[in-house]
Amino acid sequence: MKEETNRAEHIPVLAKTLVEQINLPMDAVMVDATIGHGGHSFLFASKLSEKGVIVGMDVDDDAFPEAREVLKEVKCSVILVHSNFSQITEQLHAQGIEKVDFILADLGICSAQISSEKFGLSFQTNMPLDMRIDKRLKLDAADIVNSYDEKRLADLIYKYGEDRASRRIARFIVSHRKENKITTTEQLADIICRALGKSGKRSRIHPATRTFQALRIAVNSELENLEKLLDSAPKLLNKDGLIAIISFHSLEDRIVKYDFRQKKTDGIYDILTKKPLIASLEEVQENHRARSAKLRIAKKR
Predict the structure, then answer these.
(1) What are the beta bridge partners of residue 168?
(2) What single string gives the DSSP state of each residue in 277-294?
(3) Interaxial angle between packed helices 150-161 and 209-220, expressed in degrees from 0 to 180 and rounded to the nearest 10
(4) Which terminus has fewer CB within 10 Å in the chain: N or C?
(5) N-term to C-term CA, the chain
(6) Within 13 Å and on the Cβ side, how many CA atoms surround 74?
(7) Tell me: the pLDDT tens digits for 153-199?
């Protein structure tokens, strides 16, 4: 079972679909804004010549050794940058790159990150409550649950977790922290289960799922950073350049959908995916992470 999980971590989501949809010139300049273990980049790097360039960005610097190994034999140049994709313009300009042919961002959290104590993301395993993917960030999840007042906490859980029980969850968190500071994922998950009157072991979807999502989004400014990436893209893309975003929940997908639509109205993009592309049943069976993935692609006019 462990071997299957490790293999799934290395399978890039919607790989076949991306290759079918994206056709790059051999000298293309590509930005993989979330390079991770390099799976998506390898799909395209293997088709690029020595004149091609891949700029791989990631906030998790632990990803780079794996990416280097995956991409070590490709012909094109590979530049790895430890940065959030919200800084895409500044990072490209620092490399002397003004324009690119393709921007790809996979917005998902990989299984390795969820299971690692370094990140403190899991409600299935007890670990320090952290949730910073980029360790250079100051505010972590423990800071939020122990310092935000009840209303602010409830609003955050509702806004980023879309949980209708946000007020009750916030009330239980505030009540608990008066007695004991909340420092681990297990503590927080237990509080949420009590608030909802549900057991994590008996629920199809763990009761803490939405709250943990909300905290992770808030800690890492995920939606704000996505908006910055989308705002930056048009000035960076060459004519007929492509942008592809893989999202994993409705908040992300909605931002991408409306951004592409607005830019189509403004005469900037042509939308190549009228509806988001999703994984086949076969892919979902092989890689469970793909079940909620949605791919949208636009082309610069």
Answers:
(1) none
(2) EE--HHHHHH-GGGGG-E
(3) 100
(4) N
(5) 47
(6) 25
(7) 999 999 999 999 999 999 999 999 999 999 999 999 999 999 999 87
Domain that holds residue 256: 2-111+222-300
Name the amino acid, one letter, at 196. L
Residues 37 and 49 placed together within one structural domain of the fold: yes
**Assigned token pair, 260:** 């592409």
260 Cα distance to chain centroid:
18
Residue 191: which CATH number? 1.10.150.170
Angle subtended by helix axes 209-220 and 222-236, to nearest 10: 50
Last residue of a domain, one of 194, 220, 246: 220
- 146 and 175 within one domain: yes
Q: Are strands 294-300 and 277-278 parallel, antiparallel or unpaired?
A: antiparallel
Other C-beta atoms closer than 10 Å to the C-beta of 79 total: 15
- Which tens digit of pLDDT belongs to each residue from 213-237? 999 999 999 999 999 999 999 999 9
